[in-house]
């Protein structure tokens, strides 16, 4: 059991160090971002809905469209649903937070953000973990 714990520790440490090194080199990280509209409760009057759409929803969608045009995000809205999904490139978790919080509909959506690891990066880390395990085995 101790050997398995040690191997897992080495693998986790390798992943963490890889993430720190990647960020320290100034590379962009990718994040899967999902936003879903939170129902406010009882139905709002039509006039209030129109104001919300004009003042909050449309400006937010315009911002997202601009981010997509400059290559900051790629994704879209789920057909027939009030949720969106996109991949965002950012230098840090803080940058993701700031960008999402700058959206006018930030407070109207429930957000889920997942930091992604590249396939190539993970493959390299797995190679290093295997190498560390085989060294420790000897």
Keywords for this structure?
4 helices; elongated; Alpha-Beta Plaits; alpha+beta; 54% helix; 138 residues
Write the layout of secondary structure elements.
Layout: H1 2-24, E1 29-37, H2 46-69, E2 73-77, E3 83-90, H3 93-101, E4 109-116, H4 119-137
Antiparallel strand pairs: 1-3, 1-4, 2-3
Provide a compact summary of the structure.
This protein has helices at 2-24, 46-69, 93-101, 119-137; strands spanning 29-37, 73-77, 83-90, 109-116. The chain is an alpha+beta fold.
Description:
The chain is α+β, with helices and mostly antiparallel strands and 138 residues long. The chain has one domain (2-137): Alpha-Beta Plaits, CATH 3.30.70. 54% of the residues lie in helices and 22% in strands. The chain has helices spanning 2-24, 46-69, 93-101, 119-137, and strands at 29-37, 73-77, 83-90, 109-116. It has a four-stranded antiparallel beta sheet with strand order 2-3-1-4. Strand 2 and strand 3 (83-90) form a beta hairpin. The longest helix is centred in the middle third of the chain and has 24 residues, at 46-69. The protein starts with a helix and ends with a helix.
């Amino acid at each position: 059991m101790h050997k398995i714990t040690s191997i897992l520790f080495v693998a986790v440490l390798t992943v963490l160090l890889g993430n720190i090194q990647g960020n320290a080199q100034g590379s962009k990280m990718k994040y899967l971002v999902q936003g879903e509209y939170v129902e406010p409760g009882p139905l709002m009057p039509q006039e209030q809905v129109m104001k919300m759409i004009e003042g909050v929803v449309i400006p937010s969608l315009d911002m997202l469209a601009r981010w997509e045009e400059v290559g900051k995000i790629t994704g879209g809205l789920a057909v027939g649903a009030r949720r969106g999904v996109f991949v965002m490139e950012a230098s840090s978790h803080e940058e993701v937070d700031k960008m999402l919080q700058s959206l006018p509909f930030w407070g109207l959506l429930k957000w889920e953000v997942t930091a992604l690891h590249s396939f190539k990066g993970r493959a390299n880390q797995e190679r290093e973990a295997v190498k560390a395990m085989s060294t420790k085995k000897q």
